Write the structure tokens for this entry.
Amino acid sequence: MSGISRTFASDNWAGIHPAVLSAIASVNGGHAPAYGADPVTTEAIALIKERFGDDAEVFFAFNGTGANVVGLQSLLRPFEAVICAETAHIHVDECGAPERLLGSKLVTVATPDGKLTPGLAQGALRGVGDEHHVQPRVVSITQSTEVGTCYRIEEITALGDWAHDNGMFLHVDGARLANAAATLGLDIGAFGSDLGIDVLSFGGTKNGAMGAESVISFLPPGDSPLKFIRKQSMQLASKMRFVAAQYIALLTDDLWLTNATHANAMAQRLARGAAGVDGVDVVYAVEANGVFASLPSEATLALQQDYPFYVWDDETGVVRWMASFDTTEDDVDRFVERLAEVMGAETA
């Protein structure tokens, strides 16, 4: 049974990259120790440590929400809080999982472009030492952000310095870390402890994998209870080699970069085409694989009949279009053509 045609709904809608699928199949023969005690997992962890450094501890997980909850829990107690952008995935798209499962409050901050700064975060730093207030403990950012922008190295370093100066940790939700690295011309391993990052999720699913995420901790090994947290949070895979093999495929010959670069390029092509259609306004800088545009609700409904995608903001009419590793130029051009037809019908 085949899937539906390629859409711009989400990079989660894309299939598995053939090389990743082949890697899964390649480790399917015979038996191997469970729960990560197998040679495939050992190899995958070694490849990740080659990129991120010897101080990186690697813990594979199933999904992005699980990776975020596991990573944050290693930094928090229930009376402590996370400072994040009001658009952060942990706030708007995880059904309250961090707050319910961790018992920790999320303190949100309005941002113009999805990115926190020390100045913006400072306004959320309240009640320190006051027993009546939750205690700020973690700054969490998303790379790339939920609106498709990317933090520059110096921006992350500034947040890391600010967090540490205030006795806090820096957590990075890197579900689309590959896309950000591709945009910035950096190796994936650039997002490590040198920037002041304490815990990072390095996503694979949105980059051509299947249910493969990882949590990377840069805390001293004795200070991180992640191996216990992962198990208790139901993110420890018994047949770990099938998750680990996907990271081997993504890191071999920089497949992660090839996939992310292509998805980003398709988003740029889509943004240029959409911006040329009368009545369509691209509202955020296109720096990764997402395009955010405003158009009349009637046009959105008409376009969704042919191409499923999500409305980002009902009030403003902003929608989100996501490109994937398998998006083609023809996919983009056909979509833009249909967009122009729909908008033309609305203004006729």
User: Anything to note?
Assistant: The chain is about 40% helix and 15% strand.
